[in-house]
Amino acid sequence: MSHAVTSPVASRDLAAIARLRIVPRRFYGRWVAAALIIAVLAWIIAAFVKGDIAWPVVGQFFTAPAILSGLGNTLIMTVCAMTLGIVLGVVFAIMYMSPNPVLRSVALFYIWFFRGTPLLLQLLIWFNLALVFPTIGIPGLFSWRTIDIIGPFMATLLGLGMNQGAYTAEVVRGGILSVDTGQTEAAKAIGMTRLTTLRRIVLPQAMRVIIPPVGNEVISMVKLTSVASVIQYAEILRNAQTVYYANARVIELLIVAAGWYLLVVTLLQIGQYFLERHFSKGRGERRAKRTVKIEEEPA
Questions:
Q1: How far apart are CA 115 and CA 173, in angstroms?
Q2: What's the rounded Cα separation, in Å, for the pair 227 and 131?
Q3: Is-contact 70 147, C-beta < 8 A?
Q4: Which residues contact 244 (CB under 8 A, 6 or more apart)?
Q5: Low-confidence spans in the chain with pLDDT less than 50
Q6: What is the DSSP letter of 202?
Q7: Beta bridge partners of 282
Q8: What DSSP letter does each residue of 147-175 carry, written as one string?
Q9: Alpha-carbon distance 81 to 159, whole Å?
Q10: How many CB atoms lie within 10 A of CB 121?
Q11: pLDDT for residue 123
Q12: How far is CA 68 from the centre of its chain?
């Protein structure tokens, strides 16, 4: 049995290494950046505190009936427009991927047109549609005056919903493409129709990819409803404007509107987090199983 022989020089080196003190790395750049950010935030807060803002007025109007009514209209329009947008998005995504050239061409035109024109322009077109079509209906059977049907609410719903549908169609199409084609081929092999395969195999798996961007679109829709103020839809920003036109408290009412927007968006972000976690459960379990298997193989 051999014994390692350590020279006196090596012993002194090992002893010197053992006495070394471990010094954590200093991130001076992070400290400077954090200090600058804190200074800017303090400056902004001080400006709002010292500015000509009547904070009691902000508290007074935060729960005013006009503001709460506008908030309700904003939430109703968000739900209705997103529902219409999701339905149209799924339908046109399926049409886009259809082997039928007519359906594919219609889907391409729809996505091209509504993604290629500004949302404000679309709202104005819907709101002034009576100039092109004075009446809507089936000639000889029934008809209504367009101006009676497409008011501010309906024009906002059609404008926001159809615009959203064009973007959602691309999101849904990306989610469908993310599912392995072998799953579709296996479904066909056991006799499933194309629609049944989409409904029971492809779309449930695609939801993991679809949920995050659609969640972001819901949050964006809450804020996009403010654009409808130009066509007289009484959402929260328009109602806030109506109030400050009367009392000249402009910045106070804008702060009230901003506070409600931030509160609603925060709640939606929390909901999106739990929804994403729900649809990623299976994936996380599979990943954990693969990790355990890989770690156990060397043993």
A1: 15
A2: 22
A3: no
A4: 250, 252, 253, 254
A5: 1-2, 285, 287-299
A6: I
A7: none
A8: HHHS-HHHHHHHHHHHHHHHHHHHHHHHH
A9: 8
A10: 10
A11: 93
A12: 23
Crossing angle for the helix pair 119-127 and 152-177, nearest 10 degrees?
Answer: 140
Indicate if the alpha-carbon torsion angle 179, 185, 190, 195 is positive or negative. positive
Integer Cα distance of 269 and 81 in angstroms:
18
Give the C-alpha separation, 259 to 62, whole Å: 8
Does this model's pTM top 0.85? My answer is no
Give residue 6's pLDDT: 57
DSSP state of 178: T
Nearest to 54 by CA among 189, 226, 299, 254: 254
Inter-residue contact 217 to 85 (CB < 8 Å): yes
Q: What is the mean pLDDT of the chain?
A: 83
Per residue in 37-81, pLDDT (tens digit) is 999 999 988 888 787 788 888 888 999 999 999 999 999 999 999
Alpha helices in 178-249 (DSSP H): 181-189, 194-197, 203-224, 236-247
CA-wise closest residue to 89 among 125, 122, 115? 115
Residue 18: both structure tokens together: 């053992």
pLDDT of 81-119, one tens digit each?
999 999 999 899 989 988 889 999 999 999 999 999 999
pLDDT at 167: 93
> Who contacts 223 (Cβ-Cβ below 8 Å, separation ≥6)?
261, 265
For the chain, what's the residue count? 299
Give the integer Cα–Cα distance in Å for 89 and 80.
14
